[in-house]
Design brief:
3 helices, self-incompatibility, Self-incomp_S1, 2 domains, alpha+beta, Immunoglobulin-like, about 150 residues, secreted
Length: about 150
């Protein structure tokens, strides 16, 4: 009998993961009910290029394409989301400035990242030499990645 319960539970779980996602009242989806979000997060990308350049960004996850954005100096782009119960939420961005570009992960399931982001808000700032993550624990920007030369 125990094997049958485990088998039925496995079938229900796999159906929940593959079910069609339907938007319900207030923006809640069926997936949110079946696989609840663990915590709410915000990711922010800031153009801190002191040369006055426009920063091009294109951010996405497996499920969401956040579109192409051109950020002027000191402008920011933010999005909110809930990490899923499977801890598989993952966002990355392509960024481009006049003489450099990069593909960079901006959110993934990692306790060190969570600590640096203060368990709620990851702030990435593009500067002339690279991309920095605001470390809320130490109160300073930390260089995460340097620009690759070219387009």
């Amino acid at each position: 009998m125990n094997c049958i319960k485990q088998f039925l539970l496995a079938i229900c779980f796999s159906l929940a993961l593959t079910c069609q996602d339907h938007v319900l009242v207030g923006g809640t989806t069926t997936r949110d009910i079946i696989v609840p979000k663990i915590s709410e997060w915000q990711v922010t990308v800031v153009n801190g290029l002191t040369t006055g350049e426009t920063l091009f960004i294109h951010c996405k996850s497996k499920e969401d394409d956040l579109g192409e954005i051109n950020l002027k100096f000191r402008n920011r782009f933010s999005w909110n989301f809930g990490e899923n119960m499977l801890h598989s939420t993952f966002f990355w961005c392509y960024m481009n400035k006049d003489n450099g570009h990069m593909n960079v992960n901006v959110f993934w399931d990692d306790v060190i990242l969570f600590h640096r982001c203060g368990w709620k808000n990851c702030i990435w700032t593009a500067k002339t030499d690279g991309l920095y993550l605001w470390n809320s624990a130490s109160g300073e920007d930390v260089l995460s990645r340097k620009w690759e030369v070219g387009w």
